[in-house]
Amino acid sequence: MNIKSNEILCIGEVLWDRLPTGAKPGGAPMNVALHLSAIGLNVTVASSIGNDNAGAELKHFLENSGVATNYIQTDEKLQTSEVLVHLDENNNASYEICEPVAWDNIRLTNTLEEKAKRAGLMIYGSLASRNQETRNTLLTLLENDAVKLIDVNFRKPYDKQDVVELLLEKTDIVKLNDDELLVFARWHNKITDNEKELVKWFASKYNVQMVCVTKGEKGALLYNEGEFYEHPGFKVNAVDTVGAGDAFLAGIVAALLQKKQPEDALAFACATGAFVASKAGATPKYDMNEIKRIMEQ
What we know:
Blueprint: E1 7-11, E2 15-19, E3 22-26, H1 28-39, E4 42-50, H2 53-64, E5 72-75, E6 81-87, E7 93-97, H3 110-118, E8 121-125, H4 132-141, E9 147-151, H5 161-168, E10 173-177, H6 178-187, H7 195-205, E11 210-214, E12 220-224, E13 227-231, H8 244-257, H9 262-277, H10 288-295
Parallel strand pairs: 1-4, 1-8, 2-6, 4-5, 8-9, 9-10, 10-11
Antiparallel strand pairs: 2-3, 6-7, 11-12, 12-13
Helix pairs in contact: 1-8, 8-9, 9-10
């Protein structure tokens, strides 16, 4: 992965996850940024919060975590996003996402455009593009020579084919889970039980350089430059799966930026995801020693 600078820009939703155990900061782009920052990388979040207590607390949390908030806008009309998180008997999460909220209205500003032009890597998802304003802002920001990575991150009913395929046209790297991969296959009547064949089809169909498929407790698969790499995952006692995929993504980005071999990057990413799944909420305090212990299993 050749990138022009070490600046990483994460664009999209910042919010409060209302879990059965209480409120935790969340939103996939913010989670990824927090993990990348904890690993020691130069990362910025672009988003929007409401002019309310929830927004002020979220901003305070980010500043305390060492993540710059210069590109988090304040919306005077829309409130800070909150998501109701429901856990099943295996502690897998489902989400109830309110709308409209502040991050539906991320405005295109000159300073944000300049920031995007300086970025070597841009990370974004499909959820924040559910409404027109943020979608237009993101599509404009993606018109540059940064490496672009999408975390598909489908959340019903915001899993529209026309929206995500518009974003994929501008994307170099795709991270998605095995269920999301099957959604793309159904859209195009691609019927096969061979997962690797499906991944190769996906990479060719959308003209992307790298595809990473997470498979929950079964690990993950990476397709890069025509080669497949697989990892069976690490066994941990899951507290909840909120943010585990975001941690996985941060792990693989960090490892690849550090020029690790794809198989080593995949192992580190799986361990990072497992670490977060073993804790409450999406952004537990980072512990590299514990991640190393997981890898030594």
